[in-house]
């Protein structure tokens, strides 16, 4: 790692690869995570790297994994939950069918986003996106 900067007692390393800055974070002895900081400005990289380190440490303190589930994975969990409800007579076949149908749109729209990135703006933008989706050749 040429030109690497070691910060926060060695828990954070900022380095550049192909012009873009990356952070290498030590979460525990022998366990590292490397993430792109999506910047070519060193000062911005240092700030973003520190913010990322503190976020990941906070997640670890709460017993959460360093990488959150995608929205698609949460949808899959929800469908499995509703399928169990259906098996126990707590959800109708029609409701389960509707959930699976609507989930296809949500997966297409925001399935690759981390679940914590699903905010009011993402929710508000879904309806216009879905109208456009119906209007295209899908």
Average pLDDT across residues?
90
Spatial order of the strands in the main sheet?
1-2-3-4
Whole-angstrom Rg = 20 Å
What's the end-to-end separation, in Å?
A: 46 Å
The residue ranges in which pLDDT falls below 50 over 5 or more consecutive positions are: none
| Global structural class | alpha+beta
Strand runs, count:
4
What is the tally of helical segments? Answer: 4
Large-scale geometry? elongated
Percent range for β-strand residues = 15-25%
Task: Tell me the major beta sheet.
Answer: 4 strands, antiparallel
Task: Summarize the entry for a quick read.
With 138 residues, the protein is an alpha+beta fold. It has helices spanning 42-61, 71-87, 93-110, 120-135; strands spanning 5-7, 12-17, 20-28, 31-36. Helix content is 51%, strand content 17%.
